[in-house]
Amino acid sequence: MSSSRFPSIFLLLTFAFLFQSALGVDPLFHFCSNSAGNFSAYDPYEANLNKLVGYLSIQAPSTGFGTGSIGENPNKAYGLTLCRGDVSSSDCKTCIVEAGSEIRKRCPSDKGAIIWYDNCLLKYSNTDFFGKIDYENRFYMWNLNVVSEPESFNKKTKEMLSELAEEASESPKLYATEETELYGNTTLYGLTQCTRDISSSDCKKCLDSIIGELPSCCDGKEGGRVVGGSCNFRYEIYPFVKA
């Protein structure tokens, strides 16, 4: 599924919510941006974009994040990639390489595009977007199962994610996770993360914005995500296992 432009409204996806390995799976979602313009085969922008994706696949895996730009205007390409905070360097690199290959197939002539996998995201454009919160690219995922006590569960989930938003914004990696025991021998897991081109305060602002989408996205659901171009959260419940 794709969009002809970066959308100003949030697209909703309904399917079983799964935590996947990024190896050998399809992307979670992608957008192609016609608004950024198009390029043709052998265009100087295409050459710069190819170099940029290769550069990011080398630069980013050691830290899990990278930005770069290659070329001169009007053919300059800007790119960013982020791997989930707990992903190994080797899996990070694998995901970035796959993302770079797949997005070129899905958006072959678009100067701007973004693609998400479970382990990473990759975004590029012909305009400098670094340091700016991406409010346009956003999608939802949720588990089809509903909890038995949705009101108290929603409150607990929002409280956890709000705490994690604060923790992530104060972390050097702009990343935080937590597990807590719930009623009925279940565990609630939460994760928040931001791209590291934005400031700590903008990370908090971005996460607060998407956490505000909880009622629209995941009301009473056993798991859910709101995933954007600058930040994302995820939560799920699973049986509690005593050590």
Automatic annotation (TrEMBL):
It is found in: Secreted. Its main location: secreted. Residues 1-24 form the signal peptide. InterPro entries: CRR_secretory_protein (IPR050581), GNK2 (IPR002902), GNK2_sf (IPR038408). The keyword Glycoprotein applies. Pfam families: Stress-antifung. The keyword Repeat applies. Gene3D superfamilies: Gnk2 domain, C-X8-C-X2-C motif. Residues 27-129, 135-240 form the Gnk2-homologous domain. It comes from the Eukaryota. GO terms for cellular component: extracellular region. Keywords: Glycoprotein, Repeat, Secreted, Signal. Belongs to the cysteine-rich repeat secretory protein family. This is Gnk2-homologous domain-containing protein. It comes from Corchorus olitorius.
